[in-house]
Amino acid sequence: xxxxxxxxxxxxxxxxxxxxxxxxxxxxxxxxxxxxxxxxxxxxxxxxxxxxxxxxxxxxxxxxxxxxxxxxxxxxxxxxxxxxxxxxxxxxxxxxxxxxxxxxxxxxxxxxxxxxxxxxxxxxxxxxxxxxxxxxxxxxxxxxxxxxxxxxxxxxxxxxxxxxxxxxxxxxxxxxxxxxxxxxxxxxxxxxxxxxxxxxxxxxxxxxxxxxxxxxxxxxxxxxxxxxxxxxxxxxxxxxxxxxxxxxxxxxxxxxxxxxxxxxxxxxxxxxxxxxxxxxxxxxxxxxxxxxxxxxxxxxxxxxxxxxxxxxxxxxxx
Length: 318
Fold this sequence. Notes:
Strand 9, helix 7 and strand 10 form a beta-alpha-beta unit. The strands form three sheets. The chain has a seven-stranded mixed beta sheet, with helices on both faces. A three-stranded antiparallel beta sheet has the order 4-2-6. Strands 7-12 form a two-stranded antiparallel sheet. It is globular and about 80 Å long. By secondary structure, it is α+β, with helices and mostly antiparallel strands. 23% of the residues lie in helices and 25% in strands.
């Protein structure tokens, strides 16, 4: 038997493959983001919108700033030097016009657009002090009518959610030969149509999302420890937002307690803690609670699809 045949037998279908990464994890020897600690580090808590849609009238941070252990409270005004998040979709509408690219910033300054939208970041000496001060921030938000589905969002009387996305429609994409499809359906003996809903879900990873930000003033370098599946992708996103060369950004990811596609992209907490690390000259850690990341992490699916199939008299697909 030659080497190729031996290799095929060794890794045959259905044969178990020994995992090598498990022992340290089941023995408690893993290194997750919240396990990383640095000297003199401080802690962040995010103030979030309780409304799905609303105008920010004011954010009162004075009481929070005066609380024990609080070092700073940042709002969108403090992050105005940061740019918007890079928009990764490169597609055109059916009329050839480019996809609308809404501007999204780390902290909301004028309007909130979902429950959990971050509007301020509190920095304190301990996690409990940061959380206490978080709850002392006064929010005056005028509630606006929200939309709860894609169908509602594109209705003629729908409230405008993002100012830079007219009619709440970012992309109207078309692919294929419309004339040929129309002809096939017009000549079909049978047409079957089906609408499907792939429900919206939260991604419940074992490790709640967390980060630890550092800034080296001497070199002008940033380091972010984060539970990410894509260090290269996030590095480029942060460099774009902060308007620095990519070589000034270092992303470190050790063990990641679950991902499922939700941990590739940049999140508001990462920008806020990087800014705080630079302004305070100290490492800044943020660890989301389980309920918090249910609101704050990207959610999945919520896809509504309608499919049709054109058949001839013998049931063959046209």
